[in-house]
Design brief:
Number of domains: 2
CATH class of the largest domain: Alpha Beta
Oligomer: single chain
Low-confidence stretches: 1-39, 303-330
Distance between the termini: 38 Å
Number of strands: 13
Largest sheet: 11 strands, mixed
Helix content: 25-40%
Strand content: 15-25%
Shape: globular
Structural class: alpha/beta
Order of helices and strands: HHEEEHEEEEHEHEHHHHHHHHEHEEEHH
CATH architecture of the largest domain: 3-Layer(aba) Sandwich
Number of helices: 16
C-alpha cells in the first residue's frame, strides 16, 4: 500500500503580502482583481464555516460537515469544501483524496498541501497558502472511508470491512448526496485528484462513475483524473522501490543483487523466499534512518518515536503480503503534531460542524487501525486505466523525483507496462523560466516529473504544482520552453 503524509513550511505574512501584490498568478491574469468578482452562488447552507479559529480573512466561502452515505448503518463522511477564490460558478469542481489508507484529506491535502489555509507550526492557527488550488477550481476534500479523521459509522462491523471497493462505493454515494446539498455543482465539469494510496482510490472511483454514468439519472460530468506519486501496480511499485533505493545509494550492490536474483514480485508467494524477504527488510531498515518520502531533507529529531518510525517498525515485524508495505510519512514528520493540536481544539471542531457540536477527543491525522487492518486492495489498477483511456478521460500522472516511497521508477514501470504510443517525446517543462521537471505524453495519458520534490509534491513545489494543476484543468501541456 502507499502512505502519504504531507508537510508544509508556513509562510510569513509579509511574504504572503508581497506575493499577492507582485505575483497575481495565472488566475488573476485571466480573471482580474479578486475583490471585484462574484462571491458564492450558494444562498443558504447550514454547513457554512464561520468563526474558524485563526483563519485569515478571505472573500470566498467554505463549508464543512457530514454527508450520510448509508442510512441503515449510520455511515457519514466528513468533507471540507472551498469555493474558488474567484468566479466559483464558472470554475470546475475537483475532489481531492489522500490515502493511507486511513489518512485525512483535511489534515493533509486541505491544510498542509493545496488548500487555502495551512496549519501554523504551533498548531494554534492558520496561514494563507498563496498557491492554493482553489485559485483555479472549487476544491472538495473528503475524509474517506469511515474511521478517517472525523468520518464515522454507527455500525462497528463496518470498520472490519474497509477496503478498496467499500471505499469507492461510499465515496460514490457521498458525491450523489453531496450534489443534493449543492445542486449548482451537479452538472459542473468534475475532476478527481489525489496522491499515494489514492493512486488506487481515484481510478477505482473514476471507473465506478464511468460504469454508472450509463444511467442518465446517475450522470456525473467526470472529465479526468490527476494522480501524484500514486500506488498503481504492486509488482511494479515494489520493483521501483528497491531499484530506486539502490540507484540512490540507500542500499548496497549486494543487497540489490540479492533482490534481483531472488524476488519475483509478480508471484503470489513472493515472501516465501527467505533471501528475498531478508534483502527487502534490509532496504526498509535503511530507509528507517532517513525520510523515505523525501530523501534529502532532515527528519524530525524532536520526536524520535514519530508515527513514521513506529509504523515502519511494526511493518518490519509483520508477515509480508503482496501489497505494498504500510508506511506512514511525508516531508516533515513533526508536522503531524501541528495538525493534531489544531483539530483537537473544541472551538475548531465546533466551527467545522463536527459531530453535531460534541467534542471528538482524539482526532488523529492517520487511523492506524484502518492502516493495519485494510481488508482488500487491488493488486493493480492498470486495467482501470485502460478503461478510462477508452472513455476519453484526461489522465495526468506526476512524480516527485526525491520520493523513495512511491518513487518515479515505480510509476515509470507501471505506465510502461500499458504499452501506450508516445505522442510527444520526453522533454523538460518549465515554470518561471526554470526546469520544473520532465514530461512525456502518451496516447491517452500524460506523465510528468517534479524536479527535487518528495512524495507530497505541492509541499515541495507549490508554485510549480499550481501551474501544473492549471495546465491540467485547461488540457494544455505545461510550457516546454523558458
Amino acid at each position: 500500500m502507499a502512505f502519504f503524509i504531507l508537510k508544509v513550511a508556513p509562510l510569513l505574512n509579509i511574504v504572503l503580502a508581497l506575493f499577492l501584490i507582485s505575483e497575481r498568478t495565472i488566475v488573476v491574469a485571466r480573471h482580474g482583481q479578486w475583490s471585484n468578482e462574484k462571491k458564492s452562488n450558494i444562498q443558504t447552507n447550514d454547513h457554512l464555516v464561520t468563526n474558524l479559529p485563526g483563519q485569515p480573512n478571505v472573500e470566498f466561502q467554505h463549508y464543512s460537515g457530514y454527508v450520510t452515505v448509508n442510512e441503515q448503518n449510520g455511515r457519514a463522511l466528513f468533507y471540507w469544501f472551498y469555493e474558488a477564490w474567484t468566479l466559483p460558478d464558472e470554475k470546475p469542481l475537483v475532489l481531492w483524496l489522500n490515502g493511507g489508507p486511513g489518512c485525512s484529506s483535511v489534515g493533509y491535502g486541505a491544510t498542509q498541501e493545496i488548500g487555502p489555509f495551512i496549519v501554523s507550526t504551533d498548531g494554534n492557527g492558520l496561514q494563507l497558502n498563496p498557491y492554493s488550488w482553489n485559485r483555479e477550481a472549487n476544491m472538495l476534500f473528503l475524509e474517506s472511508p469511515v474511521g478517517v479523521g472525523f468520518s464515522y459509522s454507527n455500525t462497528t462491523s463496518d470498520y472490519d470491512n474497509l477496503g478498496d471497493d467499500f471505499t469507492a462505493n461510499d465515496t460514490y454515494n457521498f458525491l450523489h448526496n453531496w450534489f443534493e446539498k449543492y445542486p449548482s455543482y451537479r452538472t459542473r465539469m468534475f475532476y478527481i485528484a489525489g496522491e499515494s494510496y489514492a493512486g488506487k482510490y481515484v481510478p477505482e472511483l473514476a471507473g465506478l462513475i464511468t460504469d454508472r454514468n450509463k444511467d442518465p439519472s446517475l450522470f456525473i460530468n467526470l472529465k479526468g483524473i490527476l494522480l501524484g506519486n500514486p500506488e498503481t501496480s504492486d509488482a511494479e511499485d515494489w520493483k521501483g522501490l528497491v531499484d530506486y533505493a539502490w540507484s540512490h545509494a540507500v542500499v548496497s550492490d549486494e543487497t540489490h543483487k540479492t533482490i534481483r536474483e531472488s524476488c519475483d514480485f509478480n508471484s503470489n508467494d513472493t515472501w516465501s523466499n527467505n533471501d528475498c524477504s531478508d534483502a527487502v527488510d534490509e532496504v526498509l531498515r535503511q530507509y528507517k534512518e532517513i525520510d523515505i518520502y523525501s530523501l534529502y531533507t532532515s527528519v524530525c529529531i524532536a520526536n524520535s518515536a514519530s508515527s513514521d518510525n513506529k509504523a515502519l517498525q511494526v511493518m518490519l515485524k509483520k508477515t509480508k503480503s503482496n501489497m505494498m508495505p504500510r508506511i506512514l510519512g511525508g516531508y516533515d514528520p513533526c508536522l503531524d503534531d501541528y495538525a493534531k493540536g489544531y483539530y483537537n481544539k473544541p472551538e475548531v471542531q465546533k466551527a467545522l460542524h463536527v459531530n453535531n457540536g460534541l467534542l471528538l477527543k482524539n482526532w488523529t491525522i492517520c487511523n492506524m487501525d484502518i492502516f493495519n487492518g485494510w481488508s482488500q486492495s487491488k493488486g493493480s489498477v492498470l486495467p482501470i486505466y485502460k478503461k478510462l483511456i477508452d472513455a476519453k478521460l484526461r489522465i495526468w500522472v506526476y512524480s516527485g523525483d526525491t520520493d523513495g516511497r512511491v518513487p518515479v521508477l515505480s510509476t515509470r514501470y507501471s505506465l510502461s507496462s500499458l504499452g501506450l504510443p508516445i505522442t510527444r517525446a520526453w522533454r523538460p517543462w518549465y515554470n518561471q523560466k526554470q526546469v520544473s521537471g520532465w514530461l512525456q505524453e502518451y496516447q491517452g495519458l500524460t506523465f510528468a516529473t517534479f524536479r527535487g520534490a518528495g512524495h507530497a509534491v505541492p509541499i515541495f513545489k507549490p508554485s510549480e504544482s499550481l501551474a501544473f494543476f492549471t495546465s491540467f484543468l485547461l488540457g494544455e501541456s505545461p510550457p516546454s520552453h523558458r
